[in-house]
Amino acid sequence: MCGICGVLGMNDEGLVRRMCDLIRHRGPDDDGYYSDENFCMGMRRLAIIGIASGHQPIRNEDGTIQVVYNGEIYNFLALRADLEAKGHRFYTSCDTEVIPHLYEEYGDAFPEHLRGMFAISLWDSSKKRLVLVRDRLGIKPLYYTTIDGAFLFASEAKQFFAHEGFKPEMNAEAVDRMFTYRTIPGTDTMFRGVYRLLPGHMLVHEGGKPVIARYWDMPDSEAPVAVEGAYVARLRELLEESVRIRLMSEVPLGAYLSGGLDSSAIVAMMSRHSDEPVNTFTVGYGESSDEFEYARMVADHCGANHHEIKISMDRMTQFIPVSIWHAEVPLSDPAAIPFYVTSRELKKYVTVALLGEGSDELYAGYDEYHPLSYSFIPEWLRKKYFEFRRIPLTARDKRRYFGAAIKSGIDASREMDSLLSAGEGDILYRTLRFDVKQMLPSHQLLRVDKISMAHSIEARVPFLDHKLVEYSMSLPSWVKLNGGVHKYILKKAVEDLLPSTIIRRPKKGFNIPIDTWMEKDLKEVIASVLDSSRFERRGYFNADAVRQLSRSQGLSRGKAKYATWLAFMVEMWSRVFVDQDVKSRTLDIARLV
Question: Which UniProt keywords apply (predicted)?
């Protein structure tokens, strides 16, 4: 696991070194650089595989192809054996080394052979050709921008602050999307002019311009018709294999354990394939959302070495700025903050951690999916219900609360209807496909990568192995939502591994008692920020209207709370990224409010 960056259009190793310095947290073990005429790239390394020999950049035999990359290639040993049989020579035990040789052998089709998570920068010096690749599901991030005619790319957007010509400006359209979808799907980011390379895409920069193309997409074809038992057996086989290959590590390994179905299934399978007890970690708040009871049950059942992290809500507030700094977005989901604290504690014990992200989107785990399976209700009505549940603020709400600096151009209902109508399959399939392709990489996976890597932890997500995803998305909807049971097929696939209480209990994650936090410990902080002249002068929001949100009659209580939280987050994001000089930046909550 690493962080990477580079610049095309100038040979400035000093700039690339400064970019790498801004992500030292992603790779505290090593750094490396490569320079060519009009090009330079670098990396920071978190050593996990091939610790002694995995220094990057890594090249082919004659040095004409150079690679830095962030991620893990789980099938690298099989790829290496095949490439060696074709005459390629290897000099390290690191997974990175298969990449330049795959490029030699297969050209731009080389990512199709990789099984894992990755963000790759490959430089072909003979053709002065830059190739950037992001993994199929968007587990690893990759950003790009143009500054003063030079093309820059990086694992984190904050790395662009190293260029003196980069002027951070908030992207108003991104804020509009955040208030529409709770995240920023697509290529946009919170920074104007900074873009994400989409999952399953490749960017080739050659001859003075970048060209982006898709190399992978979710297949629309359905799995062969089978009895329920056959579907269950195949899912179990693929999930077990996915967990097993993700135990590959030369450093200590563990798992986030919420006590819910997804993380519990991962821990159970890890225990089956591990020689030693699995290190597991659970967070709790002393409120009704406390997960300790169920996590203990799973840990005891699996013989895990369990760790409990108790968080007091008054301590949580201090971690807001640093969590925003690492996530690089307003935290629409407050769970990112306890995840930051949990990861900090977890680092004392392990460097690699598995977690259950992606299962809800693959197997219809969220409550709002439920009515989509009701075939007796007209599809247009099912979509309307889903939009009502999913979209936090209507166009009218946004017109009321946005200021002059943000002009909402998104008709959320119309756009959502168009998105859910595209493609093959029934309405549930199309919704799950949208969530896996758009919402998951821009929201949950962004949080998982950025927050875990803030503490030099590699997070692995077995449910998002692309072979497992392809099979899961080919399954008929009735095996996902069956008789009102969410994740029906997953529960069947793991029911022999876990206590029945875990199989039957409702979905839970790293939930945070947001009501208590906002009404007690955080109340004065939010009021101080939203009542400030700085918030009003910025012009993002109608300050008077936002200040009345907690007493609003025009919004439901839940929507008022969400809008208040997100307005607070956008202002805090601006104070962290826009208002401060990078050299004198503070992440002290007391100094920022």
Answer: Amino-acid biosynthesis, Asparagine biosynthesis, ATP-binding, Glutamine amidotransferase, Ligase, Nucleotide-binding
